[in-house]
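Progress against Task 2.4 (sequence-to-structure conversion) is shown through the following example record, which the project officer requested during the mid-term review.
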Amino acid sequence: MGACQPDGPGRTRRAHSPEGANNPGRLSWRHPTCAGWSTRRSGTHALPRRAPVVHTAAVDGRTAVEALHGSTTHGEPPTHPDRLVRFRPLDPTNRPAPLKTYPDVEPVPLPRELRPSAAPAADVLSGRVATSQEAANSRKIDEGLLGTLLFLAAGITRVARTAGGDPLWFRSAMSAGNLHPVEIYVVDDDVHHYQPLNHALVPLRRGVHVSDAVTLVLTGIPFRTCWKYGERGWRHLWWDAGALLANLLAAADAHGVPAQVMAGFPDAAVSALVGIDGVDEVPLALVRLGHGDLRLPSPDALGPVVARADPVARHVLRFPLVVEAQAETALHADAVAGWREAARTVSAPAPTTVEPPSGADPDDRVEDVILRRGSTRLFRRERAPAPLLAWGLGAATRAVPLDAAPAGTLLEHLVNVHDVEGAEPGGYRHTAAGTWEMHVAREDARRAGRRLCLDQPLGGDSAYTVFQAARLDPLLATLGGRGYRAAHLEAGIVAGRLALAAVTLGGGATGLTFYDGLVSRYFGTGAAPLLATAVGVPETRPAPSGTPGRPVELSGYGRVMDRLAARFNRP
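Structure tokens generated for the chain above:
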């Protein structure tokens, strides 16, 4: 996902409240900054090493999540400043490895040919591709189809070079800061880890027979994103997992593979199954591909995974608020069913399908869209066609196959419209039912959009910017801190879907961060923004994309980033 311009190694970030933050009708344009929510000084402070902290009983986790959320809101004083870790963001001497590797295990290559789909991309993204129960039951996920799904979800598609010649990898799904903290494990009769660079599977366990269908386990490496974003990086784990899931769900739909996302699962059992500690790498979500049961053994029933991965970084920092939020929102196996049942009372209905746009290319396929997608770095200030908003947002916000939202969704969507055909500029609330409520009419909507997004030009140069939001009080009261995780996961799915819908219609999209409280006040809502996605007319054409195991090398990437920096400094 696109992100604010980095502070730079060794620079500190200064906490401040944006002027006008206490008045939803007034926005000030002074002091543009990418600053956040705490003051950082050079040096490190990490938790002492200890045994992994993974709870084995159901806990509410609300207090820990509220402490993290309140301490990582941009533009507001942190609620627990004494608990924020002092460290050097973007420390070049302690940069996390972008890929997880097992040096002593021979990977098993996956087929490098992408399996083509048949239905038009717009139909797939609209939820209009139906698969009969009989066809779904008979669908076999062979190595070729599995490789296609994994590559379209998390494969490496492009590579650029730094000034020093080091590779900078780009993947098929968005990621905040291009840091990609999410890993994928494949579970069926065996357990494997997916290596996107080589497009291969690393065997970790044989003959466990825990899943009748292929189940993917998504995990997150907190330090890979906290290295830049500090404690707020915990939120990014779920955003990035959601963006990856948007690609995966679209590809699965295109190939007639039923997919179910599970945010409720026994954390300790999943961690033990894939061989992670639950602290420096944590379970995020499960995805069942096809039909069948997942029989997770208790953590004590499995021996340790023998294969050892290379260290994530020279010195992995642990952030107390992150460790506690993760541990205290863990579920025991006995609590999963009750948690999922509770989700029925807090999720809202959402449509499962929308009408496809009339102007979409009928020969375009989901794999084509995914391979064209790249986070837009520059938008043209041009009027966007109406379907980019009406269909794009409708396709993105339709019901997600997520156990935490059995009725359809946990979210609402706050939309700042800048320049879309037939739409008055200003701030709207888009409901789960697809209705629009105007909250703020503004002639200077672009200026407001930029301000809301930490003064980042992309937030105002876009045709519109969407803030995925949730009402945290009822969510946390019903689902505890685990509901916070699930809402961020769904927000990431919506952001990823927005990007795919935009690219389908020739547009572009990027994820952004924002002034949390200012967004809520601007729209006059008690909902908390979780993620922002800017959608509009891209200034550059999509870069070419590679195939599994063969990423395309980008030329001119540095020039684009120079232009982005120049625009960032524009008044």
